[in-house]
């Protein structure tokens, strides 16, 4: 049969233009096994890494020697004092959407954990919607008695979604009492002022020095799963499994980097705003010595309004440490630079601590010249009236 005859037959419906490719099942795309759970079967993919394997230039096992005190600072929570990496899960889920709610499915849940001399990544895959209960049941079994789960944006998305789905599926145990250490919040507290954003791939590239090879944008992942459910062809999911696995591998490395960073004020890798940000974390936890260390380093590197802002906070730290000479020196150096707080703090000091009322009056009068007519006007005039009354009654120590 010549080409013309073939084309005529195809046009008339006598011959299909070509064979349809058979869908490729998930078993041929990523090697795994079917796991039977109390809620039916699901597909599990297990990958094991020697704990000394590196993610970028950092070995996974480095996280095993972390100081619990630094982990408390990373999470800003004293409950992390008992944190144990070997009994924790590193969790990341791929879902059918980012909106959450009952219409969103966690179709791939990856968890990483240390076991003997290896770091294991288990990926629980929902081959169809009726396997949701099965992957959640398998996850509950992995959580078991573990007390800590480490995630990235897990507090806002992954964990609430999974817990809600467990309730819907009648899995009352759920994630148990496991505490969720969300590294997104730690990353924002440290690098949020110096990076354009704190998405995981930004943190990987700018902080960990990691550049992924073949990868898929997160917003394209749901459509890959929908295509698979419609067609049964899993060929588009290989990169999704790889993406999820890389997210899991990043978590212990990032935890290690966070803990190293918050304990090293002399690090050459830290920008001035990072030093200030870490100082604020310690400040909020009322750990004054560490606050002072990071603020002092930040002031050495900062310029302009940012430097003035940190110097103002530095003065407050000296005050809380009762280092009045340093506090007064810091506040005095900030006078005339457009900041109200140094005037207020010096007025308080001279009125209530050193009892130098004439100095307190002079500071308030200087402040009125700079800030009179603003929202501070009333407070300043009230303070000035009180100080003048004290002076007229002979109270305080005159210059």
Search tags:
399 residues, alpha+beta, Nucleotidyltransferase, domain 5, Serine Threonine Protein Phosphatase 5, Tetratricopeptide repeat, 2 domains, two-stranded antiparallel ribbon, 50% helix, 14% strand, elongated
Topology readout:
Elements: H1 3-11, H2 26-29, E1 33-37, E2 40-50, E3 54-55, E4 58-59, H3 68-75, E5 88-95, E6 106-115, E7 118-125, H4 132-143, E8 148-151, H5 154-168, E9 179-182, H6 183-191, H7 200-206, H8 221-231, H9 238-261, H10 272-284, H11 288-301, H12 304-320, H13 324-334, H14 341-353, H15 357-371, H16 377-392
Parallel strand pairs: 5-8, 8-9
Antiparallel strand pairs: 1-2, 2-7, 3-4, 5-6, 6-7
Helix pairs in contact: 3-9, 6-9, 10-11, 11-12, 12-13, 13-14, 14-15, 15-16
């Amino acid at each position: 049969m010549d080409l013309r005859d073939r084309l005529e037959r195809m046009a008339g419906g006598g011959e299909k233009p070509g064979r349809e490719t058979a869908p490729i099942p998930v078993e041929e795309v990523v090697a795994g096994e079917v796991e039977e759970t109390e809620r039916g079967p699901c597909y599990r993919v297990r990958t094991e890494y020697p704990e000394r394997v590196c993610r970028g230039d950092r070995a996974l096992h480095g996280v095993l020697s972390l100081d619990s005190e630094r982990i408390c600072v990373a999470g800003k929570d004293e409950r992390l004092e008992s944190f144990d990496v070997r009994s924790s899960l590193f969790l990341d889920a791929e879902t059918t959407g980012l909106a959450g709610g009952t219409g969103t499915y966690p179709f791939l849940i990856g968890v990483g954990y240390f076991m003997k001399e290896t770091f294991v990544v288990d990926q629980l895959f929902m081959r169809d919607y009726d396997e949701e209960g099965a992957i959640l049941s398998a996850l509950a079994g992995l959580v078991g008695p573990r007390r800590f789960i480490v995630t990235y944006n897990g507090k806002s998305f992954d964990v609430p979604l999974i817990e809600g789905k467990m309730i819907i599926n009648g899995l009352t145990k759920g994630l148990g009492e496991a505490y969720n250490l969300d590294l997104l919040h730690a990353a924002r507290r440290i690098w949020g002022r110096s990076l354009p954003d704190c998405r995981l791939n930004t943190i990987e590239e700018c902080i960990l020095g990691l550049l992924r090879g073949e990868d898929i944008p997160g917003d394209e992942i749901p459509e890959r799963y929908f295509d698979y459910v419609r067609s049964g062809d899993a060929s588009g999911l290989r990169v999704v499994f790889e993406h999820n696995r890389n997210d899991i591998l990043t978590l212990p490395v990032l935890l290690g980097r966070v803990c190293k960073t918050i304990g090293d004020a002399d690090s050459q890798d830290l920008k001035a705003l990072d030093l200030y940000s870490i100082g604020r974390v310690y400040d909020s936890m009322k750990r004054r010595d560490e606050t002072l260390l990071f603020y002092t380093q930040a002031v050495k590197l900062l310029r302009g309004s940012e430097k003035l802002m940190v110097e103002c906070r530095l003065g407050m730290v000296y005050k809380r440490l009762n280092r009045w000479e340093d506090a007064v020196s810091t506040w005095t150096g900030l006078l005339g630079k457009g900041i109200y707080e140094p005037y207020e703090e010096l007025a308080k000091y001279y009125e209530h601590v050193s009892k130098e009322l004439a100095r307190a009056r002079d500071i308030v009068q200087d402040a009125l010249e700079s800030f009179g007519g603003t929202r501070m006007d009333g407070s300043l005039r009230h303070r000035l009236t009180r100080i003048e009354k004290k002076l007229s009654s002979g109270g305080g120590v005159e210059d």
